[in-house]
Amino acid sequence: MNLASEAPRKKGGQIYLLFGLVLVCAVVAAGWFYMRDRTAPSLTLTPSQGVVGASSSVQVAAEDTASGIRSLTVSMTRSGRTTVLLDKTYPDKPGAVSESIDLAAAELKDGTFEISAAATDGSIFNFGAGNKARASAELRYDSKPPSVSVASGTIYVKRGGTGVVAYTLSEPVQRTGVFVGDVFFPAYKRADGVYVCYYAFPYYVEFKDFAPAIEAEDLAGNERRRKLSLQPKDHEFRHDVINLPDSFLDSKMPDFEGIVPGEMTNLERFLKVNREVRKDNRAALIGIGRKTADLPLWQGAFQRMAGAPRAGFGDQRSYRYDGKEVDRQTHLGVDIASLQHYPVPAANDGVVVFADFMGIYGNCVIIDHGQGLQTLYAHLSEIGVALGETVAKGQIIGKTGVTGMAGGDHLHFGVLVSGIPVSPVEWWDAGWIRDNVTSKLP
Ligand SMILES: [Zn+2]
Predict the structure, then answer these.
(1) Which structural domain range is residue 86 located in?
(2) In a domain? residue 271
(3) Are residues 309 and 269 located together in one domain of the fold?
(4) How remote is the CA of residue 412 from the centroid of ligand 1, in Å?
(5) Which of 225, 288, 316, 411 is most buried, judging by how many CB atoms fall within 10 Å of its CB?
């Protein structure tokens, strides 16, 4: 036995074994690397269905956290013809990409088309080609805005008053109503397909600037504006002077320390309430105005609480302290004074959409009468109804008082059209309602 010759032979065997192991490892590693990502990227098209227009875009999003995105193509097929809208490669292979496809550039024609996308990841699987995901969506292209047919509407709309218009549209819409300047009054659709819209001739809009227009935006984003033909009537509002004696400020301002905190004089606090809190309260009315029934809940003339008229709608108030004018505001309801803590009736059938303290209005109830039409009762000493409660015309909803910015016991009664205050006088008048509202609704 030659022991000497054993050792080198064994050494050579070890080298082969090591080499073999390295080779096996390399093959396994390469295999693992090759097999590592066999999953296609995620790919989504938004929208994936429905209607699009010239102002629309289609979002294409692809994601692959394992190997990144190598390329993305998007194409459109219409009447058998395919057009490539995007063909992009990403040398950095980002984990996620998102592209916006501008449809105006696609020069589409009205009708259905298919949009398809393909995304490839950075994997070396499939002999280096990577994994591919495909997605497609059938969409309808609509370039035409809806057409508006006006059935009827109020002809004589008075400054500070209300108008109504009934109309139909040629196609479904995502938004429609009347614009007066930049104020939007939503329309409400009846079961017969007729849209009904109450709008205001807002007290602050000059006669020459009042040009209400129906606006309709279809599902593809195409917009139509159609000016209403009517005859507006101007109205001069009264001027009124309100003196602010220290006795009033001393008794009233402590109530507002919670809303307007901080060290300041009573007059300074009064001015903050009269300007800033008033503004906030009016903005809140717009939001409450959207909490409304699609159908009318009211019937006939609105009921007026018995009592003596005080301040009127639209009064231009000049506030004086120590003989000098310190503020100017517009009074946007009608003040009615009776006995102290007099029972307040609901002006018409409806649902309570607000019953709480609200800044200048004090304890306040707002009743919804449907289609954006609401009534407001302010300065109450007592609220007798709860949020969501259904009330009938004449039902007692609270008692008059002096809460909020009120000097003496009275009811501040307001009518709101989608949150914009209008003159209540028209709504108390059965003749006005017949001539300008009910006879105008088909
Ligand atoms: Zn008032």
Answers:
(1) 42-141
(2) yes
(3) yes
(4) 4
(5) 411
* Residue 93 buriedness (CB in 10 A; 0-12 / 13-18 / 19+): middle
Asked if residue 223 and residue 170 are part of one domain, the reply reads: yes
**Cα 372 to ligand 1 centroid, rounded to whole Å:** 21
Cα radius of gyration (the chain): 35
- Structural tokens at position 125: 């699987």
- Residue 205 contacts by C-beta under 8 Å, 6 or more apart in sequence? 159, 180, 181
Q: Is residue 314 part of a domain?
A: yes
Identify the CA nearest to 370 among candidates 293, 278, 282, 288: 293
Please give the pLDDT value at position 415.
98
Number of H helices, E strands in the chain: 6, 32
Percent of the chain whose pLDDT exceeds 70: 97
Q: For the chain, how many structural domains are there in total?
A: 3
- For ligand 1, the distance from its centroid to the CA atom of residue 362, given in whole angstroms, is 11
Same domain assignment for residues 166 and 275: no
Could you tell me the distance, in angstroms and rounded to a whole number, from the CA of residue 400 to the centre of ligand 1?
12
DSSP lists the bridge partners of residue 239 as 316
Query: Edge-to-edge strand order for the sheet containing 69-78?
Result: 51-52, 132-141, 111-121, 69-78, 81-89
Domain shared by 372 and 317, yes or no: yes
The pTM of this model reads 0.85
Distance CA 46, CA 60 (A): 7
Confidence bin at 241 (pLDDT 50/70/90): very high
Residue 171 sits in the same domain as residue 252: no
